[in-house]
Here is the input.
Amino acid sequence: MVLDSWRNLRAARHSASTTAGRRYPRAADGQVLVEARELTKSYAGADRELPVLGGIDLQVKAGEVVALLGKSGSGKSTLLRCLAGLIPPSSGAVTYRGEPLTGANPGTAMVFQTFALLPWLTVQENVELGLEARGVPAAQRADAAVQAIDLIGLDGFETAYPKELSGGMRQRVGFARALVVEPDVLMMDEPFSALDVLTAENLRGELMELWESGQFPTRAIVLVTHNIEEAVLMADRIVVLGSRPYGTIRETFEVGLDRPRDRNAAAFEDLIDRVYRTMTGRAKETRLPGRAEGVGRPEGVELDKRTAANTPLPPSSVDGLSGMAEMVAHRGGACDLADLADDLGLEIDDVLPIVDALDLLGFATVSGDDLLLTDVGAAFAGADVQESKTLFAEAVVAGAPLVRLITTSLRQNPDGALRAGFFRDVLAHHFTSEQVTRQLDVATDWGRYAELYAYDAERQEYRLDTE
Ligand code: ADP
Ligand code: MG
Here is the structure.
């Protein structure tokens, strides 16, 4: 039924698009629609330009679903915005059908995580917005919007306002608004991550059914996600972004699984595992003979070479990493990362910073899929509070350069106190101001627990802990 109405819509829009002056014919499968070449992007940092993306080469072709997968902060949204022409790259180029962009990409429409609906407009009016911007006459707008609303399962909600709708229904409006313009490429930035699990699952399923039916009014999909399973479920190609020292394409996976995809199939699980290992940055079996960079932790820096600049602290609280260490200890000191995340009901974004912190502090190592406590890590997990603080203090001084920097700076200062601004200035050479804040928050938490220093939030001052 839904598909029938979509066919009607296509017919209606066909005549509409001649009036609207459609410039491009429908692309054949395999035709390159959007392309990034040697794309880099920097943002203004606290005191200089900071690279976020470096040397990205990417093609989006007609007929494919591409997932951009990476940890939070790896530059996924930035790359998507560049491809959509919403922000210009710092260098390199983005082209649409071979032509360099000079502004918003005419072949794309975007669905955002936060729906981005106008609260004072009805569902119908919100959906029509996209067409209005493209100069489609009112009668055709109304017609096309009704059809798109029907397609996406919003029939009967035309006159509702966003606040009357559930999250899932609101996101349907987001989809309808993007689809109504029949973009060559539908771009989605974590479109399901603000929804509850069941709603997200349902919407994903419906969307992929429409896509597979061949009636979908777009020729390609680019999906930004931090959810591996979502990527493997939906994409033909998964592009994994790594974030150090800035966002680059770490690896690309061709999915090649039949649709609809069976989560329990061995090939599905196998791919999840492979992508998981790439995401954690420790893909031991991808090690190539004679290539050192595949060994161990590609992102890590040796203990004696670590600085506050090359070794940012993972955003993990002491509670979080102690809890994780205890959990692994209960399981005999070793466990499968994916299982652990699953059992805790956590996502990769939640688990990885904690794992990174344990690794950084020498409490655990990661080998393939397994998280293994070290001897110190096991001692830390089993220690009483005082003992745990002592072990933690030794670990942070050795392994967390920012905590060490703050501690030694305070010791060198006659009155044992320093303003946070001093460390902000030091860090500003290497991080954006948002990142500087995050780094200092973590260092404050860790240093306090280790009883190395105290922090007076009111005076914004660090002081040696002398008790
Ligand atoms: P992701 O979507 O993968 O989480 P983003 O593209 O949002 O990553 O961000 C990548 C990095 O760029 C982050 O460190 C973030 O803090 C920084 N960043 C994003 N947008 C801006 C901006 N407008 N100004 C300064 N820094 C930004
Ligand atoms: Mg993002």
